[in-house]
Amino acid sequence: MNPDKQIIIDSLLARVNESPYVIVIDYTGLTVPQFSELRNRLSDNGAKCTVAKNSYMRKALGEAGLPDLGADLVGQTAFVTGNAEVFSAAKVLKNFEKEFKKPEMKIGILGKSVLDSEKLKAIADIPSREAVLSQLLGLINEPATRIARILLEKFDPERQHFKSGGSEEPSPVTAEVPAAEVPAAEVPAAEVPLEVTAETTETI
What we know:
Blueprint: H1 3-18, E1 21-26, H2 32-44, E2 47-51, H3 54-63, E3 77-82, H4 86-100, E4 104-110, E5 113-116, H5 117-124, H6 129-154, E6 155-156, E7 161-162, H7 172-176, H8 198-203
Antiparallel strand pairs: 1-3, 1-4, 2-3, 4-5, 6-7
Helix pairs in contact: 1-3, 2-4, 4-5
């Protein structure tokens, strides 16, 4: 094989091996500015669009041990790979097609599975991992937030106690013995020996 061709195939092989997916698009009818805009939008989402001969990409896929896309590698095709999730790239392609009526997602590979255009469009509607995690975190935090709100509503920061049905808990001292019923000391103060210790001295 021509060394220059092998260099191109090796470059495609490296991109395929580094990417968890490959999306084949038909870019027929796209203008140069539109194609540049598509590449920019994909780049913002961790993806890259590569134009290469179908025979070169077929060879690279074969060397990578991926499924043979066969008859789908025909016409003006480009190949989208990336180091991020497939959801983002598929969403960019689907939205771009809605806006410009092109390009068309023909077929793709995710892992070892072949995805047709309908499955690729369905994947584009799936939220990203970050969005799913954010929604999950919101569900997890919701009960804790509700509990915290209830506690704050029942806690009286001025009196430092919890309300219970609108009534206050009596003070433990006044509830046990009224002040008038406290018995006087049986031993006169003069007869109580005073032990002077280091602690007593410091207090005095």
